[in-house]
Amino acid sequence: MTSPDPNATFARRHLLTCEGLKAGEITALLDIADKAADQNRQVRKKRDVLAGRTLINLFFEASTRTQSSFELAGKRLGADVMNMNVATSSVSKGETLVDTAMTLNAMRPDILVVRHHAAGAVELLAQKVDCSVINAGDGAHQHPTQALLDALTIRRAKGRIAGLTVAICGDVMHSRVARSNIDVLNTMGARVRIIAPSTLLPPAAERLGGEVFTDMNKGLEDCDIVMMLRLQRERMEGSFVPSTREYYHFFGLDAEKLARAKPDALIMHPGPMNRGVEIASTIADHPRSVIRDQVEMGVAVRMAVLEALARQLRND
Amino acid sequence: MRKTITAPPSTATVFINARLIDPATGRDEPGGLLVRDGVIADLGQHLRRNAPEGAIVIDCRNNVLCPGLIDARVFTGEPGQEHRETLKTASNAAAAGGVTTIVVMPDTTPVIDQVALVDFIQRRARDNALVNVHVMAAMTRELNGEEMTEIGLLQRAGAIAFTNGKSTISNTRTMRQVLNYAKDFGALIVHHTEDPYLSGSGVMNSGEVSTRLGLPGVHKFAETIVIERDVRLVEMTGGRYHAANISCSESLETIRAAKAKNLPVTCGVSINHLTLNENDIGPYRTFLKLRPPLRSEPDREAMVQGLAAGDIDIIVSCHDPQDVDVKRRPFAEATDGAIGLETLLAAALRLYHADQIGLVPLLRAMTSNPAKLLGLPGGILEIGAPADLIIVDLGQPWVVDKAQLRSRSKNSPFDESKMQGRVLRTLVAGETVYQYDDAVR
Question: Contact A158/A214 with Cβ under 8 angstroms?
Fold first, then answer.
């Protein structure tokens, strides 16, 4: 861990990955987000740092919370926000990703927020456009704003990130949320644990920067944060895990397993949740659940990222 | 306050004048053994002639007293095919053959792939079976070879290992996932290894005999190829793997190489593949139609040597009762399988009498080795171990008569065969569940 430089700023053109982000950069973003979060609780939520700017949400994959969160963040900062509906766009007519990027680029947006089902697609697109690009999730690779909003949620609830033990549990193999979080949490000095059945662990999981557990009870021992991941339906039917029932029994967060963690451990989930699969309903609604705070912090973090990127935009 | 509660003296039974054989430790010496409350309470030379006061005395007359056999591969027809065999009839056959623990396969109707069905077998066995019955559950749903079962929950319910029964998982990805997933639970994966595409419509070992008989053959590499693949998957995942029933020298070589690499790989061989070969099929004897098929004599010899060398871990009966309707057919149309519980020990003793293997290593492959492999408490002579015991007269000659066999189906490949060595008494948890005539008094 590098100690955060008090004068550090986030001075990048794109936000594509959490890998390589410096502690100072993350802290700078979280500091801006902190203020945005407070502002978002006021009646007057709007500012004009993005006045005159155009933000395009380009989602090749369905999303509710991330897309609306970016839309709201852009609007609260005064940008013109456009949502590209890929289902009715020329993409569905066979246009390649690069052609779509070039077409949009010609419309002179300032910031492009992109989600794509293929790992690396957002980076490819970023190479082809003149505007700033934010990765809103590419395949099983990265989802940087999710990791940042998780970090903000933790920092606001616990007052710090460094030194905390954070367990990331579930389908790590297919999770971009896990990869981004492992990067950010390690950079910020947290101790990361990765908990999953062997069939949902990526190869070389132990090399990612976390201690690996296949027994959830052991993995949760003395954790400060329990971060659950979503298990996709098509992976529950005997291909990766035998059934939702068995998965819930061994890897679903219930009161009994939660009791292994510290008494003040926080419960997190990036959503959308499968109640009764990876998390018990009562745990999702537990007093120590910060799942709804994560959604709130999502808007704040995205505002912070937009604001930081806007500072790098050309003004001529 | 000191109050001595005197429990009613539990009845003890002492076996005197025994030749104690404990395959786990290699003990083979004259002595005696004391059973109390279903467990071995004491054993050794000091009990050879001296019976503790009040104990029931059984004179072994210098016959072998050893742990009862554990048979890790038994097919029954319960539930669904009770006309072939029930847990009760299989356990009767087991008791008469000196087998005190049977592990039943999930190839039933319905397939044992759910917690409730494991529970069903356990309750039926508790109420009806003379011997210990354990369940090996299905590792894919309905043995379909594609979707894995609830291995964790099935294990909690009592399943001691997981198998695809008589079928092979040809989907390599599924096999990888099963091994990978089972590893987290330390669960053993037991696989019947035969590439179904390569074996095709084959009905016996491919070679000169099959050609002369005009029957389609199964090349032995249909087995070896699957084992070679599986060993790589074990290397990839670290899952515990057991080849259920190997039959040729090349498969043995693969297993031996895997063990040399310290991979968690073991294998079993059926009594049929140790004592019979393809020539025994003779004039299309369908009781010798098996999966894997009986191989050539050199392969059989390789199995015996592999057993003697300890490369083959366990001997199984592969007891597979089939009724006459499915056996009394042209060879190619007959169903595979042979019964074997009642003849397991006697057939195995052929190898001992032929000086092909010592008595202790032979018994080890049917007692302590399967116990260790499956995590079962029996198979050993030590204080506190369950009194699952057999008294065996190694020399007694007899002739197999299928009409006398206790199994509900009579498809014995050893019918009318001469045997040497007979179980005189079988005890499960200290209770006598079988006694041959009144030979032991």
Answer: no
